[in-house]
Amino acid sequence: MFSAPDDATAQRMRTARAFACTTLALADHAENPVWGYAGRTLSGAVTSAQGTGWLRVVAERPDKARGKLWDGPKTAQELLPPEIPRPALHHVHDWQAVGWTYRAELYQHSDATVISRSPVLEHDPALPGSWWAELRTALDSLAEVPTVRIAVREEYIRRTVPEYTDCDVGEIEWSTAHGDFHWANLGGPGLAILDWEGWGRAPVAFDAAQLYLYSLHTPATAARVRQTFAHILGTPAARVAELTICAQVLQAADRTPFYKELASPVKEYLAAAYGRTAAPRTGTW
Protein backbone atom coordinates (compact mmCIF):
# COMPACT_ATOMS: atom_id res chain seq x y z
CA MET A 1 0.00 0.00 0.00
CA PHE A 2 2.93 2.35 0.70
CA SER A 3 6.22 2.96 -1.07
CA ALA A 4 9.49 1.61 0.27
CA PRO A 5 11.04 3.82 2.98
CA ASP A 6 14.53 5.33 2.98
CA ASP A 7 17.39 2.94 2.36
CA ALA A 8 18.49 2.68 6.00
CA THR A 9 14.99 1.84 7.21
CA ALA A 10 14.43 -0.61 4.38
CA GLN A 11 17.68 -2.44 5.14
CA ARG A 12 16.91 -2.56 8.86
CA MET A 13 13.45 -4.03 8.22
CA ARG A 14 14.76 -6.58 5.70
CA THR A 15 17.32 -7.68 8.28
CA ALA A 16 14.57 -8.01 10.88
CA ARG A 17 12.46 -10.06 8.48
CA ALA A 18 15.39 -12.36 7.72
CA PHE A 19 15.98 -12.82 11.47
CA ALA A 20 12.30 -13.68 11.98
CA CYS A 21 12.37 -16.23 9.17
CA THR A 22 15.44 -17.90 10.65
CA THR A 23 14.04 -17.88 14.18
CA LEU A 24 10.65 -19.30 13.14
CA ALA A 25 12.09 -21.76 10.58
CA LEU A 26 10.40 -20.06 7.64
CA ALA A 27 11.42 -19.74 4.01
CA ASP A 28 10.89 -16.24 2.61
CA HIS A 29 8.84 -16.22 -0.61
CA ALA A 30 7.96 -12.51 -0.74
CA GLU A 31 8.95 -11.46 -4.25
CA ASN A 32 7.29 -8.08 -3.73
CA PRO A 33 7.00 -7.50 0.03
CA VAL A 34 4.36 -5.08 1.24
CA TRP A 35 5.52 -1.97 3.10
CA GLY A 36 3.55 -0.21 5.80
CA TYR A 37 3.60 3.53 6.41
CA ALA A 38 7.18 4.88 6.69
CA GLY A 39 8.55 1.35 6.76
CA ARG A 40 6.97 0.53 10.13
CA THR A 41 5.88 -2.89 8.83
CA LEU A 42 7.11 -5.31 6.20
CA SER A 43 4.93 -8.23 5.10
CA GLY A 44 5.00 -11.06 2.61
CA ALA A 45 4.53 -14.75 1.91
CA VAL A 46 6.54 -17.46 3.66
CA THR A 47 6.53 -21.25 3.84
CA SER A 48 7.20 -23.65 6.68
CA ALA A 49 6.81 -27.34 7.38
CA GLN A 50 3.11 -26.61 7.90
CA GLY A 51 2.68 -24.96 4.49
CA THR A 52 2.28 -21.42 3.16
CA GLY A 53 1.75 -18.48 5.48
CA TRP A 54 2.09 -14.71 5.68
CA LEU A 55 4.70 -13.02 7.84
CA ARG A 56 4.26 -9.46 9.07
CA VAL A 57 7.14 -7.78 10.89
CA VAL A 58 6.39 -4.66 12.94
CA ALA A 59 8.98 -2.24 14.36
CA GLU A 60 8.57 0.28 17.18
CA ARG A 61 10.82 2.11 19.57
CA PRO A 62 10.88 0.20 22.88
CA ASP A 63 8.86 2.85 24.73
CA LYS A 64 6.06 2.56 22.15
CA ALA A 65 5.97 -1.22 21.79
CA ARG A 66 2.76 -1.62 23.75
CA GLY A 67 -0.85 -0.52 23.74
CA LYS A 68 -3.62 -0.45 21.16
CA LEU A 69 -1.77 -0.69 17.86
CA TRP A 70 0.92 -3.04 19.11
CA ASP A 71 -1.51 -5.58 20.57
CA GLY A 72 -4.44 -5.12 18.16
CA PRO A 73 -3.85 -8.19 15.96
CA LYS A 74 -3.22 -10.42 18.99
CA THR A 75 -6.35 -9.30 20.84
CA ALA A 76 -8.42 -9.60 17.65
CA GLN A 77 -7.34 -13.22 17.32
CA GLU A 78 -8.27 -13.87 20.94
CA LEU A 79 -11.54 -11.95 21.24
CA LEU A 80 -13.33 -11.68 17.89
CA PRO A 81 -15.91 -14.30 16.85
CA PRO A 82 -15.27 -16.70 13.95
CA GLU A 83 -18.03 -15.21 11.78
CA ILE A 84 -15.69 -12.28 11.18
CA PRO A 85 -13.52 -13.66 8.34
CA ARG A 86 -9.84 -12.89 8.78
CA PRO A 87 -6.55 -14.77 8.48
CA ALA A 88 -5.79 -16.64 11.70
CA LEU A 89 -2.79 -15.41 13.67
CA HIS A 90 -0.78 -18.54 14.43
CA HIS A 91 2.27 -17.22 16.22
CA VAL A 92 3.77 -14.03 17.68
CA HIS A 93 7.47 -13.55 18.40
CA ASP A 94 9.04 -10.42 19.94
CA TRP A 95 12.68 -9.35 20.15
CA GLN A 96 14.84 -6.25 20.50
CA ALA A 97 17.84 -5.11 18.46
CA VAL A 98 19.80 -1.84 18.34
CA GLY A 99 17.21 0.47 19.84
CA TRP A 100 14.15 -1.15 18.25
CA THR A 101 11.53 -3.64 19.35
CA TYR A 102 10.23 -6.01 16.69
CA ARG A 103 7.22 -8.27 16.50
CA ALA A 104 6.84 -11.07 13.96
CA GLU A 105 3.24 -12.14 13.33
CA LEU A 106 2.76 -15.37 11.40
CA TYR A 107 -0.68 -15.64 9.77
CA GLN A 108 -2.40 -18.39 7.86
CA HIS A 109 -2.31 -18.15 4.10
CA SER A 110 -5.38 -16.52 2.54
CA ASP A 111 -6.59 -17.14 -1.00
CA ALA A 112 -8.22 -13.71 -1.04
CA THR A 113 -6.70 -10.94 -3.13
CA VAL A 114 -6.57 -7.42 -1.73
CA ILE A 115 -9.27 -5.46 -3.55
CA SER A 116 -7.29 -2.24 -3.93
CA ARG A 117 -3.66 -1.26 -3.52
CA SER A 118 -4.90 2.12 -2.30
CA PRO A 119 -7.34 2.67 0.58
CA VAL A 120 -9.44 4.76 -1.82
CA LEU A 121 -11.27 2.72 -4.46
CA GLU A 122 -10.67 3.82 -8.06
CA HIS A 123 -12.38 1.01 -10.00
CA ASP A 124 -15.55 -0.96 -9.32
CA PRO A 125 -14.42 -4.37 -8.00
CA ALA A 126 -17.43 -6.37 -9.31
CA LEU A 127 -17.80 -8.37 -6.11
CA PRO A 128 -20.45 -11.09 -5.81
CA GLY A 129 -23.60 -10.63 -3.77
CA SER A 130 -22.38 -13.25 -1.30
CA TRP A 131 -19.36 -11.05 -0.52
CA TRP A 132 -21.57 -8.11 0.36
CA ALA A 133 -23.88 -10.27 2.49
CA GLU A 134 -20.90 -11.69 4.39
CA LEU A 135 -19.50 -8.19 4.86
CA ARG A 136 -22.73 -7.01 6.47
CA THR A 137 -22.83 -10.03 8.76
CA ALA A 138 -19.22 -9.47 9.77
CA LEU A 139 -19.69 -5.80 10.70
CA ASP A 140 -22.96 -6.47 12.51
CA SER A 141 -21.21 -9.15 14.55
CA LEU A 142 -18.19 -6.94 15.23
CA ALA A 143 -20.38 -4.09 16.44
CA GLU A 144 -21.60 -6.25 19.33
CA VAL A 145 -18.17 -7.37 20.59
CA PRO A 146 -17.53 -6.03 24.11
CA THR A 147 -14.17 -4.28 24.51
CA VAL A 148 -12.44 -1.49 26.38
CA ARG A 149 -10.23 -0.75 23.37
CA ILE A 150 -10.72 2.66 21.75
CA ALA A 151 -10.51 3.03 17.97
CA VAL A 152 -11.48 6.74 17.84
CA ARG A 153 -11.18 9.03 20.84
CA GLU A 154 -14.15 11.22 21.76
CA GLU A 155 -11.82 14.16 22.42
CA TYR A 156 -10.51 13.87 18.87
CA ILE A 157 -14.04 13.77 17.43
CA ARG A 158 -15.27 16.79 19.36
CA ARG A 159 -12.19 18.82 18.45
CA THR A 160 -11.71 17.83 14.81
CA VAL A 161 -15.23 17.52 13.41
CA PRO A 162 -16.21 21.18 14.01
CA GLU A 163 -12.80 22.39 12.83
CA TYR A 164 -12.82 20.56 9.50
CA THR A 165 -16.52 20.19 8.68
CA ASP A 166 -18.14 23.20 10.38
CA CYS A 167 -20.67 20.80 11.93
CA ASP A 168 -21.48 20.25 15.58
CA VAL A 169 -21.01 16.77 17.03
CA GLY A 170 -23.91 16.32 19.42
CA GLU A 171 -24.57 12.98 21.10
CA ILE A 172 -22.33 10.06 20.15
CA GLU A 173 -23.53 6.45 20.11
CA TRP A 174 -20.76 3.88 20.29
CA SER A 175 -20.15 0.37 18.98
CA THR A 176 -17.13 -1.79 18.17
CA ALA A 177 -15.38 -1.17 14.85
CA HIS A 178 -12.39 -2.28 12.82
CA GLY A 179 -11.29 1.36 12.75
CA ASP A 180 -9.39 1.34 9.45
CA PHE A 181 -12.01 -0.17 7.18
CA HIS A 182 -10.89 0.68 3.67
CA TRP A 183 -10.42 -1.17 0.40
CA ALA A 184 -6.74 -2.03 0.93
CA ASN A 185 -7.74 -3.94 4.07
CA LEU A 186 -10.41 -6.06 2.33
CA GLY A 187 -9.88 -9.18 0.24
CA GLY A 188 -12.03 -10.98 -2.29
CA PRO A 189 -13.75 -12.72 -3.97
CA GLY A 190 -13.96 -14.64 -0.70
CA LEU A 191 -14.20 -12.00 2.05
CA ALA A 192 -11.12 -11.47 4.22
CA ILE A 193 -10.73 -8.51 6.58
CA LEU A 194 -7.11 -7.57 7.22
CA ASP A 195 -5.07 -5.34 9.55
CA TRP A 196 -6.66 -5.43 12.99
CA GLU A 197 -4.20 -3.08 14.69
CA GLY A 198 -6.67 -0.33 15.54
CA TRP A 199 -9.95 -2.09 16.32
CA GLY A 200 -12.05 -0.86 19.24
CA ARG A 201 -14.91 1.49 20.15
CA ALA A 202 -15.97 4.08 17.58
CA PRO A 203 -19.14 5.96 16.64
CA VAL A 204 -21.93 3.70 15.37
CA ALA A 205 -21.54 2.90 11.64
CA PHE A 206 -17.92 4.07 11.59
CA ASP A 207 -16.65 1.24 9.37
CA ALA A 208 -19.57 1.46 6.93
CA ALA A 209 -19.18 5.24 6.72
CA GLN A 210 -15.48 4.93 5.97
CA LEU A 211 -16.06 2.33 3.26
CA TYR A 212 -18.74 4.53 1.69
CA LEU A 213 -16.69 7.73 1.68
CA TYR A 214 -13.62 5.91 0.37
CA SER A 215 -15.80 4.71 -2.54
CA LEU A 216 -16.91 8.13 -3.76
CA HIS A 217 -14.74 7.90 -6.89
CA THR A 218 -16.77 4.83 -7.93
CA PRO A 219 -20.48 5.75 -7.72
CA ALA A 220 -21.81 2.24 -8.39
CA THR A 221 -19.79 0.76 -5.53
CA ALA A 222 -20.61 3.67 -3.25
CA ALA A 223 -24.30 3.03 -3.92
CA ARG A 224 -23.80 -0.66 -3.13
CA VAL A 225 -22.17 0.22 0.19
CA ARG A 226 -25.12 2.43 1.15
CA GLN A 227 -27.56 -0.27 0.10
CA THR A 228 -25.75 -2.97 2.07
CA PHE A 229 -25.48 -0.87 5.21
CA ALA A 230 -28.73 1.07 4.94
CA HIS A 231 -29.79 -0.36 8.31
CA ILE A 232 -27.04 1.67 10.02
CA LEU A 233 -26.03 4.40 7.55
CA GLY A 234 -29.68 5.42 7.31
CA THR A 235 -29.96 6.11 11.04
CA PRO A 236 -29.31 9.40 12.86
CA ALA A 237 -26.52 7.72 14.84
CA ALA A 238 -24.41 7.39 11.65
CA ARG A 239 -24.09 11.17 11.36
CA VAL A 240 -21.13 11.39 13.76
CA ALA A 241 -19.33 8.54 12.01
CA GLU A 242 -19.68 10.19 8.60
CA LEU A 243 -18.55 13.57 9.89
CA THR A 244 -15.56 12.03 11.65
CA ILE A 245 -14.39 10.28 8.47
CA CYS A 246 -14.85 13.51 6.50
CA ALA A 247 -12.79 15.39 9.08
CA GLN A 248 -10.02 12.78 8.95
CA VAL A 249 -9.78 13.01 5.17
CA LEU A 250 -9.74 16.81 5.10
CA GLN A 251 -7.24 17.02 7.94
CA ALA A 252 -4.75 14.76 6.14
CA ALA A 253 -5.36 16.04 2.59
CA ASP A 254 -2.29 18.27 2.57
CA ARG A 255 0.15 15.46 3.43
CA THR A 256 -1.27 12.19 2.05
CA PRO A 257 -1.85 11.83 -1.72
CA PHE A 258 -4.89 9.55 -1.60
CA TYR A 259 -6.60 11.85 0.91
CA LYS A 260 -5.86 14.83 -1.32
CA GLU A 261 -7.60 13.04 -4.20
CA LEU A 262 -10.57 12.26 -1.98
CA ALA A 263 -10.93 15.74 -0.49
CA SER A 264 -13.07 17.22 -3.28
CA PRO A 265 -15.74 14.47 -3.33
CA VAL A 266 -15.80 14.53 0.47
CA LYS A 267 -16.46 18.29 0.45
CA GLU A 268 -19.18 17.75 -2.14
CA TYR A 269 -20.74 15.09 0.08
CA LEU A 270 -20.62 17.40 3.09
CA ALA A 271 -22.41 20.10 1.11
CA ALA A 272 -25.06 17.70 -0.20
CA ALA A 273 -25.70 15.75 3.01
CA TYR A 274 -25.13 18.37 5.69
CA GLY A 275 -25.28 21.71 3.92
CA ARG A 276 -21.69 22.45 4.84
CA THR A 277 -18.53 23.31 2.92
CA ALA A 278 -15.05 22.76 4.25
CA ALA A 279 -11.50 23.41 3.11
CA PRO A 280 -8.39 21.41 4.02
CA ARG A 281 -6.46 22.87 6.91
CA THR A 282 -3.28 21.95 8.72
CA GLY A 283 -3.52 19.76 11.79
CA THR A 284 -2.59 16.48 13.44
CA TRP A 285 -4.69 13.51 14.40
UniProtKB/TrEMBL annotation:
InterPro entries: Kinase-like_dom_sf. It comes from the Bacteria. This is Aminoglycoside phosphotransferase.
